[in-house]
Design goal:
The chain is mainly alpha-helical.
Length: 1020
């Protein structure tokens, strides 16, 4: 036995999952405590802590050492006695069932200076443990003791770690990560907490080292699978807690680099080298130095996760996205040969691009899909497909398509960049060395598809569009015309059947001629005839003859498509035809069953029957259960039918008015359930059509975010008519949550801008004021405070002139908050005091609470901390009385700020965390990010710099794309302070410099503070 260093414990190899070796057979020695000889359990543990599951048999015992030393029987905690008694239990548990002699146990508990009655004390502790546990578990043998159990949390962790290592070696990184997460979750605070003795101290060190090794391995796997953005926050906190642990620094550098933050990654290395030199007088490890060099050189392989850089380690994603080819494909043989030959030579070209152009319904997609299927053997690495929706009002955005393509090619979401250029570059890099065919269907123009084209040899693209892409450099252009009469008749015959056509060949020729030899028109007509066995070809020909005037319009662009759908429309029952016409009027990307019922003014079940009948006729698509959509060309045709056929014509406006009423009524109920006691819903325009009702706020939120795109499209569409403009503005106001959600913020702003302009063209001052209010809030949320103030000032002027009280209150409140951000504290105090009085006069306690919380921040900024805390607490109390969870979180946010400045940091952190939970639950990304930012400020004030850095990193991630540059600058400034506090001053400088660039661009006073931080860094 080593009387100086304690038990001999095998050293764990760094960067290997492994498992800790069993505790050494010798016991350590150290100074004794008085409690051993007394046998008094003054500090006896009650075994409190997380309950472990009971074992299989009755009276099953389980033990824990990865935290306080504890024991459970059938899930119930057992008393484990005094600290020395727990030390004895720990020493026996960590020996893995081997016998420990009395001498070894004395050494473990007291070291070199045991008390005179040490042997008697050991026997007493053992006797008590035997009674508390089970005589069969704790046995006496060979003058010592042994504890025989396999139900120990440490053994479970070892098994999980071993399994994780095997899974990782087999390429199952997700499985390995899950096992490691399970193992790490078994730790419950400090190992062997409050257990005295040299043996326990040695084991604490050993097991903590193993925990960190497991954690490093799990983070390494995170980076391998592309979760670098999520890892930065955790690694920042870990490097603060363990500044000399170079493996953590190495992982942080790699995570930052893969997240596009090269300067910060290099700053981490500089901070590490300086710290090692100052603390230990050594240089970084060769591995860390090599990583720095690769980052300096912009190593592209380093920027890609392992699964991309080493395809042999995991299966390569081979997308097969081509739609099914039609079994009755007919004709086009010359085009098939021409395009097939072009694609077959793709391997020898930088990029083969063939663009098919022609009118709608000419068969571009059918031909392209058929050719693509035949060319599949030339593209073994996969085929990508997308409908670019170029014929509609809102074509697919290239960045959205690239995100979908990258995911199909195996890129994890966390590795997909935000900007179009970055996505396009990653897309081309991902395709490098692969042979992939890309089918870009229904393109709007060349600008839309350029970012979607592969850039390397072996790949090819097929493009379909209504226009000839003469401006697409290097493209092989194909103009697709209608079918020849022979091909048209052959297609018609294949669909209808040889027997029916053979006897009426002339009538069949009349049919295809009436269809203008347009493939889509022929297919629709033939399909209808095939579905009606009682019809003859002559009957169909006669029907088409009656439509001769309309079919003449086939020669005029889109009118050809319009006439093609006329046959299908003519076969509908009157109720089906009405549904087809009216539903096509709505601008949304799709429509829910409930919204469709509002448009048609019918019960849900009748509406569903009609819509499903339209799906059966292929005039409508089932987008998802309970949701329906039109093909873009069919929607245009449906609207033409409504213009032509709807009687009375006013029914079109009435249908859209009912849809607007449905959204306004339902959105008002969402608002009311989210904000009980808020008076906004009492000031909205009345509706004549009832919306949906909800049983809880989560159900209401789900509806709002699911319908966001359709709701905003309806608002935009309703702006065109003075009869619906008022309700459209109120609907946007009641849906203000969408402006703060992140996912819908940009579209909300665009619609608010449209409404503001539309309202400005009318004489309706009330509506113009409310439209200005929504835009003021948009500018406020995006950090454009000057523009927000201009709009809010106009709101006050207009609302007062027409005695519209609520917008006046809201605008005064907003102006006070804007003044706070612009450090115009006297103005802010005046506006918010006025807002409080106005809200009180209107009986709006929720608004009054909001203004009180904002006023508390003015008082805070002007040094009146006690008043600030009092006002914020008053606002919180008012919200709580009303059961106002969401705005209550805003109140707690303001209270947290006031408590922070007054030095009440624990209470401040608690209030901010309470607010954060609600913001996350309510999907308010803007406020979620701001709460994280403020929590970081609390941690800095408490000198918890590692925790502050982690929270600030999370805030940056959450606020990506929302909140504006000003808020991003604020978070970067705080992140820099936190990083400086944990010794990563180089990385802190990078953050401050980025913040300074933002502030100087915005010309805001915060720039001077950051300049001072940078100057102090340079001086140091």
């Amino acid at each position: 036995m080593d009387r100086v260093n304690g038990p001999r414990v095998p050293v764990q190899r760094a960067r290997k999952v492994g498992t800790p070796a069993p505790a050494g057979e010798d016991a350590s020695t150290s100074a004794h405590t008085d409690e051993a000889t007394s046998g008094v359990s003054a500090g006896a543990s009650t075994g409190e802590g997380p309950e472990l599951p009971a074992g299989e048999g009755p009276g099953e015992l389980r033990f824990g050492v990865l935290g306080p030393v504890r024991a459970w029987r059938d899930g119930e905690a057992l008393p484990t006695g005094s600290p020395q008694q727990r030390a004895l239990l720990a020493a026996l548990l960590l020996r893995g069932g081997r016998t420990a002699t009395a001498s070894e146990l004395i050494d473990a508990l007291w070291g070199e200076e045991p008390p005179s009655q040490a042997l008697a004390a050991v026997r007493t502790y053992a006797s008590r443990l035997r009674k508390a546990l089970d005589p069969k578990v704790l046995v006496s043998e060979s003058g010592g003791y042994a504890l025989r159990t396999k139900a120990l949390d440490l053994l479970t962790a070892q098994e999980l770690a071993t399994e994780a290592e095997k899974l990782r070696a087999a390429g199952d990184r997700a499985g390995a990560r899950a096992r490691l997460a399970e193992a790490l979750a078994l730790w419950d605070g400090e190992v062997l907490a409050s257990v005295p003795g040299p043996y326990a101290e040695t084991q604490r060190t050993r097991l903590e080292e193993w925990r960190l090794t497991l954690l490093e391995t799990r983070l390494d796997i995170d980076l391998e699978v592309g979760a670098h953005a999520e890892a930065v926050s955790e690694l920042t906190a870990l490097t603060a807690a363990h500044p000399l642990r170079e493996r953590l620094r190495e992982l942080l550098m790699l995570a930052l680099y893969r997240g596009g933050r090269q300067a910060e990654a290099l700053a981490v290395y500089a901070d590490t080298r300086r710290l090692l030199a100052d603390e230990l007088g050594v240089d970084p490890t060769p591995e860390l130095s090599r990583l720095q060099q690769r980052i300096l050189q912009g190593d592209t392989e380093l920027a890609r996760p392992v699964e991309e850089a080493a395809p042999a380690a995991a299966p390569i994603a081979r997308p097969a996205q081509l739609p099914a080819t039609v079994p009755d494909f007919t004709g086009r043989s010359s085009f098939v040969r021409e395009l097939g030959a072009r694609l077959a030579t793709a391997e020898g070209h930088v990029m083969a691009v063939s663009a098919l152009a022609g009118i709608g319904g000419v068969g571009k997609t059918t031909l392209a899909v058929h050719v693509a299927h035949e060319a599949r053997p030339h593209f073994p690495d996969g085929q990508l497909y997308v409908d670019l929706q170029g014929a509609g009002h809102r074509a697919a955005a290239p960045e959205t398509v690239l995100g979908s393509f990258l995911r199909a090619l195996g890129t994890p979401d966390s590795a997909i960049p935000d900007s179009l250029d970055d996505r396009a570059a990653l897309y081309r890099s991902t395709l490098d060395g692969r042979r992939v065919l890309v089918l870009l269907d229904n393109a709007r123009d060349a600008a839309q598809i350029r970012p979607l084209l592969p850039g390397t040899a072996g790949c090819a693209a097929l493009v379909t569009s209504r226009i000839r892409m003469v401006d697409l450099a290097g493209a092989h252009l194909v103009d697709l015309d209608v079918m020849s009469p022979e091909e048209a008749l052959q297609l018609f015959t294949r669909i209808v059947g040889e027997e029916r056509v053979q006897s009426e060949r002339e009538a069949a020729l009349d049919v295809v001629a009436a269809c203008g030899f347009l493939p889509l028109a022929i297919r629709i007509a033939a399909s209808r005839l095939a579905a009606r066995r009682t019809w003859t070809v002559s009957v169909l020909a006669a029907k088409l003859a009656d439509e001769r005037r309309r079919l003449d319009e086939l020669q005029a662009g889109d009118l050809a498509v319009k006439a093609t759908f006329e046959l299908g429309y003519g076969q509908l029952e009157p109720a089906q035809a009405r549904a087809f016409r009216l539903l096509g009027l709505a601008d949304g990307p799709d429509i829910s069953l409930a919204a469709a019922a509002a448009v048609l003014d019918l019960p849900l079940w009748d509406t569903e029957d009609l819509l499903e009948a339209l799906v059966d006729t292929s005039l409508l698509e089932s987008a998802a259960p309970g949701r329906y959509r039109y093909h873009d060309l069919v929607r245009l045709y449906a609207r033409a039918c409504a213009d032509r056929d709807e009687q009375p014509p006013s029914e079109k406006e009435a249908a859209l008015s009912r849809l607007l009423d449905f959204y306004l009524s339902t959105a008002a109920r969402v608002y009311a359930i989210e904000r009980p006691g808020d008076r906004l819903v009492d000031h909205l325009e009345p509706t004549s059509y009832e919306g949906l009702t909800f049983t809880d706020r989560h159900e209401a939120q789900d509806w709002l975010y699911a319908e966001a795109n359709c709701l905003l499209a309806t608002v935009r569409q309703s702006a065109a008519s003075p009869a619906t403009l008022r309700r459209a503005v109120d609907l946007l106001w009641a849906s203000l949550d969408l402006a703060e959600s992140g996912a819908n913020s940009k579209e909300y702003e665009a619609v608010a801008t449209v409404l503001r302009k539309a309202a400005g063209r009318t004489d309706d001052v009330r509506t113009e004021g409310r439209a200005a209010l929504t835009l003021a809030y948009v500018h406020h949320h995006q950090g454009r405070f000057d523009r927000a103030e201009q709009e809010a000032e106009e709101v006050v002027r207009m609302a007062r002139s027409v005695q519209d009280p609520l917008p006046t209150c809201w605008a005064s409140n907003a102006r006070g908050a804007i003044a706070l951000y612009q450090t115009r504290y006297e103005d802010g105090d005046r506006h918010l005091t006025l807002a409080i009085a106005e809200f009180r006069a209107a009986g709006d306690r929720a608004g009054e609470a909001a203004a009180l919380c904002n006023l508390s921040r003015i008082h805070l900024a002007t040094g009146r901390q006690e008043d600030a805390v009092r006002m914020a607490q008053q606002g919180v109390d008012m919200y709580d009385e009303m059961g106002h969870a969401l705005r209550g979180a805003n109140g707690r946010y303001a209270l947290g700020l006031a408590l922070t400045e007054s030095g009440q940091l624990p209470a401040a952190g608690q209030r901010l965390r309470e607010a954060l939970d609600v913001f996350m639950d309510s999907r308010q990304r803007l406020w979620e990010g701001m709460a994280l930012f403020r929590i970081a400020e609390v941690d800095i004030a408490a000198r918890r710099y590692g925790a502050a850095a982690a929270s600030a990193e999370k805030a940056l991630t959450v606020l990506r794309g929302i909140g504006g540059d000003w808020r991003r600058g604020n978070v970067l400034t705080v992140l820099g302070r936190a990083l400086h506090g944990i010794g990563q001053s180089g990385r802190a400088q990078v953050c401050w410099q980025e913040a300074l660039d933002i502030y100087e661009e915005l010309s805001v006073p915060e720039a001077s503070e950051v300049r001072a931080l940078l100057a102090a860094r340079v001086a140091a």
